[in-house]
Structure prediction request, 487 residues.
Amino acid sequence: MNLINRPFFVFDQWRCNSWFFSVLGLLIALMAGWVIGTKGVLGGLTVVAVPMAICLGIGILVQPKFGLFLYVNLSFVIGFARFLPRDTPMGTGLDAILLLSLLGTFLNGKQMDWKQLKQPVLWVLIVWLSYTILEYFNPEAPHRPAWFYNVRSFSLSWFFIAIIVMVNPISRKDIRVFITIWLVWSFLAALWAFKQQYIRLEPAELAWLAEGGARTHILWGQLRSFSFYSDAGQFGSEMAGVTLICLVLFFERTSWLHRIAYLILGVILFWGFAVSGTRGALFVILPGYPTYLFLSRNLMNIVRGIAVAAPILALLMFTSIGDSNYQIFRIRSALRPTEDASFLVRLENQEKLSHYLKKKPFGAGIGTSSGAGNRFSPNHFAAQIPTDSWYVQLWIETGVVGLTLYLMMLVGIILIGTYKIWHLNDPRLITLMIALLAEFVGIATVSYTNPILGQFPTSTIIFISSILFTTCNRWDTPKHLNYANRN
Prediction:
């Protein structure tokens, strides 16, 4: 091109582009005005939300790790769904973020460490995923499309998260950020629960109670705080889980400033567990704490841990001190399940299920019980029996074969995590991984009493933390460099 004519060419091109963007901007403005004019406030929110969603989508595709952290945060925000219209697709939005993060991982393939997919935990998850896929063809299933609604929490989300966490360039700093996000949201949840318990409930929360929540959340005139979680059972279990995390970090940190901070936070979170009135949540701490002592392989830790736990357990089991306080009374009653009418009812329901499932080794089909069952096949026997437990739900929908595979998967993850942690050199990394594994054991145990392992945000936290502690060797440092990582 002639250099003399080039400036005129550039000017013409700029003028053409400016006309194009001006016309495009005008059309967008007219469309936005029309949407706001016809849809009102909802239209205004849509006009703001759509560009934000597009920007977020592009950001996730460019940086999948950003999508993972967004997924974690929104897993807590989803609890505010009771403040939104019933048809707000919060769960679908979370699924979209997870899929975008997975797509972004593949699009940025050159930056990913694909060798990490050789980790044993992925093969354990593949076995379970394969079984749940085969369950789609279960001849007992009354409504096959319902399979999609529950398979996400059963296996798909865990598998997708595993790939994202394994191959993305996750750093030690990212792990600390993940735990910090978790603790901050848990602290806010505890404060919200205190507001419910000691100040007042919001209109949307009162409406939720009136629509049926009061049957399980107001007992003897006493509110079971549920914060912004799905219910008090999940809230209480999550509070017990993060209390355990704070307990481990309190014992393992060398800085007294850090210890005092974790102690104060642990007390706040423990009282959050108490005001939930969720007795079963105590079984997050009861197995999780000994798991921490076992994994630490430190005699002084074990002696110190027993010295702290034994008197508290003895007071709860063999005395009635504090029974005048409703929360303490509820916690103490968890240690006497045979005296609990609701526990005996659960055993009766499980006895009925055992007869129903006796000739159904592969279950009634995924999506036949709980919420999906009530929605798609409400007259089916499986939908009419309260599950009250994550494992009972798995038993109903995948049969004794599926439940056995699932429990084997959990045991496999715990064993892999134990092996990996015991071969680490870095003391600070060891502390974080022990805390995550101890909490995993606690949540896996309490899931017998509450179906929390498939609910947000517990599922998100458990899925991510399980991949972190089963692949923790990739962040380890040689022994001679460990001094740089001490507190």
Remarks:
- The chain is about 70% helix and 0% strand.
- The chain has a mean pLDDT of 80.
- Residues 114-169+341-487 form one domain.
